[in-house]
Design brief:
1 helix, Metal Binding Protein, Guanine Nucleotide Exchange Factor, Chain A, 3-stranded antiparallel β-sheet, mainly beta, about 130 residues, single chain, two-stranded parallel ribbon
Amino acid sequence: PPPPRWPPGFRFSPTDEELVLFFLKRRVAAGRPSPYIADVDVYKSHPSHLPERSALRTGDKQWFFCSRLDRKYPNGSRASRTTADGYWKATGKDRSICNAGRAVGNKKTLVYHHGRAPRGERTDWVMH
């Protein structure tokens, strides 16, 4: 179905805590998708194709997706972040997402590199 039309001035701007405690928790526990967050495998597309797959088409330069984390090895803990044309590389330090003084999640910054690791070319695409 086509994405919903949002009224002028509408902005989807949840805090990190709201994303984890409201949207992600409902998605995982009850299987309830959000009309604001599209279920998209972000590793199957070049990042330039992701905006068109967003549930929100407001013209903003940020998009929200729910994507399963694939493992690099079947019994391992390392995430596989490779795409057909490149890879998402973690940069910086992970940050805790806290609610009422308790950690409820972690926030990681990933930068898209075109090509194969470790010689891929860094791009301006960033994922949080």
